[in-house]
């Protein structure tokens, strides 16, 4: 006799397009605090490289879209995604989407190829929907070599994990680079990490915002700029390192009110 089937028949997954919330709408929903929102806006304008990190359905794409909206209108933006979800309203947006292989198993165009190709299109910014493989290497290199201000997301549960995950993903490319060299690339490329979390009640929240202070071969080190405190239900903004202040000021931006510069030690 056949064992009873444990399956309960066909299952349909419907993947909805995320709503294109702007940062002000995210603010109104309590996803983050006003100081961090203002800080992130200035970071995008000052061309800092930002990684949005979070678990499944934590709101990464939504945040990436909201942040990308602050890229100035005159810049050429190239978006690269598996499924085109981003909706940017700037004038010069080139949208690229991956293509799966045909029935013969050929003709696939993966994210990696699109990132490489995008570099030949003289982009001012590259926005990659999600780094989940070897394309992380191309993204890190782009961030390090003249495409500062690029943005992407990674699937990780903490900001620290996001850095190690990027390093691991970059090692999955077909280019053989020593793992330690990848560590340096991550340190040099990533400036700010926005960590999202989906609470058990379904709320999406920025639980931390960190600045990467480690450089070259130093162990990854983060400077906490903002933390969500579950006990009080509030966002606690800290001080910013002097180097971050200087970087913003070099581009005519500055730290937002409410985020003081750290007293020098
Ligand atoms: N801050 C927010 N407040 C309320 N709802 C949100 C927020 N951010 C995202 N959402 C909703 O949560 C769902 C998932 O969002 P989104 O696709 O941005 O997450 P994701 O982390 O990119 O997911 P995936 O892991 O599938 O790529 C969407 O329906 C979106 O509209
Ligand atoms: Mg997504």
TrEMBL record:
<dbReference type="Pfam" id="PF00437">
    <property type="entry name" value="T2SSE"/>
</dbReference>
<feature type="domain" description="Bacterial type II secretion system protein E">
    <location>
        <begin position="4"/>
        <end position="198"/>
    </location>
</feature>
<comment type="similarity">
    <text>Belongs to the GSP E family.</text>
</comment>
<dbReference type="InterPro" id="IPR027417">
    <property type="entry name" value="P-loop_NTPase"/>
</dbReference>
<dbReference type="InterPro" id="IPR001482">
    <property type="entry name" value="T2SS/T4SS_dom"/>
</dbReference>
<protein>
    <submittedName>
        <fullName>CpaF family protein</fullName>
    </submittedName>
</protein>
<dbReference type="InterPro" id="IPR050921">
    <property type="entry name" value="T4SS_GSP_E_ATPase"/>
</dbReference>
